[in-house]
Write a structure and sequence with these properties.
The chain has about 375 residues and is of the alpha/beta class. Helix 1 crosses helix 6.
Length: about 375
Amino acid sequence: MAALLTPDRLGDFQLAEPLKARRIVVAMSGGVDSSVVAALAARSGAEVIGVTLQLYEHGAKAKRVGACCAGQDIRDARAVADRLGFAHHVHDHESRFRDTVIDQFADEYLAGRTPIPCVRCNMGVKFTDLFQLARDLGADCLATGHYVRRVMGPAGAELHRALDPARDQSYFLFATTQEQLDFLRFPLGGLEKSAVREIARELGLGVAAKPDSQDICFVPDGDYAGLVRKLRPEADDRGEIVHVDGTLLGAHKGLIHYTVGQRRGIDIGGQAEPLYVVRLEAETKRVVVGPRRALAVSGARLGEANWLADVEGRDVLAKVRSMAKPVPARMVGDRLLFAAPEYGVAPGQAAVLYDAGDASRVLGGGWIEESFAADAA
């Protein structure tokens, strides 16, 4: 176990010494990441308590490997806790998860928006509820397996990208409040995934080779439209496909099958240039399409913003999709103004802001409520 004990492999829980006098609550999903966090916490000498939230029903999902917070994953989390010798609790949060994440996911599609349920889950059941559970258990901190870093700055704890850009999850954690950040710890933010799996193998954890969770945890087959159709049948109603110039081009098979920026699957042939989904009009059930230049926007209005620093009038780098490259922008009130036209800005997605002077630092973000066409500006 010598390799396991090197300083760069132990993880930093940023707690006052002696650690044997500290209590760390670890959020355990049953995957390799949170299991290694629990192992690092146990190696630190602190008292460790594992907590798993059961978020959705068993049945077919319970047998799926590499999901999150149900069935086999709960059993895997318990097995890790048993092997490492600390207490493990399971809390049933199915109804709250259904109300605040799954139902909202369906409603967003019904409204012609593109949801990000993972952020809603972090904002609600994972951080808010786990935060309170950890407090009730007398914890000194709540540790998770997210790939981000908590860095102490001049004004207190800051949220930063993970050192491994391929694993960075900062986009999905923009809604972390300062109060939560003061209590949270992210020991994996400075590690690569290969190192995390190596630690799990060294400790003989059964989840060492477990696949990472894919897609959305409550849609195990990846059929988002099927889930929304089941919960909100009206989201599958057919409607018109209209060009931005007003020309009726055909009919679509339901708003749930489209998102802003989409090119494939529109099924409109015979056009002079490729067409993209420019916007979805939920009230009229219309899909509006146009050439790529019609996707260009000059800015967006943000709602439900969460700021970890003052951003008013400040030069920032804005990331408007999880896979998008951050681009120069500026915040003016509730409006995010891009330095150059940006494409594929979809209502329902998040705009996450990073410090222009330190691109690793997360300043916060908000939900995209509407965008402003570049030509209109």
